[in-house]
Amino acid sequence: MEIDDLTPAERRVWRAFATGAEVDFRDDGEGTERTVRASVLRALLLNGPREPGEIAAVKVRGALITGALDLRYATVDSVVHLTDCRFTAPPDLTGAHVRYLSLRDSEMPGLSMTRSRIDGSLRLTRCRFDGPVRLDGAQIAGALFLEDVEILPEGGPGPVLQLNQISVDDDLCARGLRARGAVRLDGAGVAGSLDLEDADLSRPGRTVVEAEAVEIGANLLARRLRAEGRIELRGARIPGRVDLLDARLSNPGGTALRISSSVIGEFWLGRGPRVQGMLNLRRAEINQLDLDPAMLPDQVRLLDLTYTFLTPHEPAERRLPMLERDGEGFDPHAYEQLTAAYRRIGDDQAARLVQLAKQRRRRSTLPWYGRVWGRLQDAAVGYGFRPLRAAGWLLSLLAIGSLAFAGHHPPPLKPGEAPEFDPVFYTLDLLLPVISFGQESAFAPTGGYRTLAYVLVVTGWILATTVLAGVTRTVSRQ
To answer: pTM of the predicted model, to two decimals?
Structure first.
């Protein structure tokens, strides 16, 4: 391209290229005074003039760039700054190899950078897109900046922001991102942190974030995130924390957040409004689960969820509803996990309450005769987790039996050999099946007192076996 073929605005850009000087059109009004053809920029970047000792670069502010900037599979050695510009067609850098690219504060119909390579950082801060942004498969040696980006397409079935299989060697900063459509991150790798704080993502009734098998080297920061639609994080690997404090997650009638089969260092969900939609934590491995019970939705999935620490410390009564909202039925593993978390911090009383709740939930899965026996055990001694209740029952029955038999001595079986009758020890003989005071075998009650004796024997066996089962469970866990 010859310089004689250029407009005055384009000549300014052409002459500034060799020395890397910036050309600012922001005060030049509208129209031809600030219009630069995309073909001119392409010619500069691929074969522009050079000066010895100078670093060539395209640095343009406030230009109107007409036509499509086509750099498909090109190698661009120069730094590119196209700041506060307006593009009439989506730039296409598919498969391109670029040293550094900044398009911040610009407006464009879309952007395609599929499988591109950026030796430095890619900065799209405060850009506005009216169509999809494709960065799938891109390799970025620095950071990716998407802060305060707006992607507001008119419609279309595909994702509005494609970051699947992207590789970022630093942070991916998308704080304040505003997108109306799906954000796809499947298989993405971010060496640093992924920052989605204050982001506003909307795709009601459908998946708004697709991030299966994503690998993040540090943290996923999403405080004050507003998400309408399903967030899919299945199979994620995040050694740091997933921070969802003050977040608003909403997908009524569907799954709001799924992190099943993920491995996470810390998971924080608190201080925000109640999650609208299902929370799926199945098969996830979390070192520290920081979960506010008030944020839990009506439905959760906890099958094979494992965690080491559960914070903040809450009474067992506030944690148990989380287990009872699992619509997949009775899962003993969930109760064991919660029990272990309480025992780890020395709250044995809460651990016993969780185990009691486990037995009661298990009872609902048994046949009728098992449920009857379970109710007897529960009423008697709380499945062995409330031993003081057993002592109360024993003392009450001992008093009843002693008073009854003190007023009516049962006749001896062998009058000449029978010991002196003692109503207290006789009642203890009936209640305690493993201890004998020589009274039960020597006397035989009649009539209604025989029925009373049978009731005391059966009740004693129930109390003894239930307490023994509870002690056995406690010892086996220690």
So the answer is: 0.79
